[in-house]
TrEMBL record:
Record's protein name: TerB family tellurite resistance protein
Membrane-traversing stretches: none
Regions annotated as coiled coil: none
Residue ranges occupied by any Co-chaperone DjlA N-terminal domain in the UniProt entry: 26-141
Organism phylogeny: Bacteria, Pseudomonadati, Pseudomonadota, Alphaproteobacteria, Rhodobacterales
Organism: Paracoccus siganidrum
Length: 153
């Protein structure tokens, strides 16, 4: 099933069909995993945060969310470079969902209570590639930090 998702997601076919449902969530989760891995410290706190985000977005229980994250880890490992990976996601995920993806990336970046330049740089790159402005991304970052009860970092 996830092999099929890999081929659908990374197909260079023009006008490829949008991803929906579980496929979309696994693709988004793969992007979250990429953010978490970008500093070479993929922690349990980051895994748990990804699981919580997936559970919250689609009303999953934690076991289902962990299963999707595990699939996303495999997809992320096989995904092309970040620019192409993000382009494929952007082309197949609704515009209305992209701001939520950026907010989720900020949640993952701060899940381990550690500010990391590699994670922040990747989020800024991906935000732009998804069509989210720097200003909107910064506002989402602030909202995430406020919601997590953390001071500006």
């Amino acid at each position: 099933m996830f092999r099929n998702l890999l081929s659908r997601l990374f197909s260079d076919e023009t006008g490829a069909a949008p991803l929906a449902g579980q496929d979309a969530e696994v693709a988004i989760a793969a992007l979250l995993v990429r953010v978490a891995r970008s500093d070479d410290h993929y922690t349990d706190a980051e895994r748990l945060r990804i699981d919580r985000i997936l559970a919250r977005r689609r009303g999953l229980d934690m076991a289902q969310a962990a299963e999707r994250r595990a699939a996303a880890e495999m997809i992320e490992a096989e995904a092309p470079d970040t620019v192409r990976f993000t382009r494929h996601i952007k082309d197949r995920i609704a515009l209305s969902d992209r701001a939520g993806i950026v907010a989720a990336m900020w949640e993952v970046a701060y899940a381990d209570d550690h500010r990391d330049q590699d994670e922040e740089s990747l989020i800024r790159l991906v935000s732009g590639l998804l069509g989210v402005t720097d200003r909107d991304s910064a506002l989402m970052r602030r909202q995430v930090l406020d919601a997590m009860g953390q001071q500006d970092r």
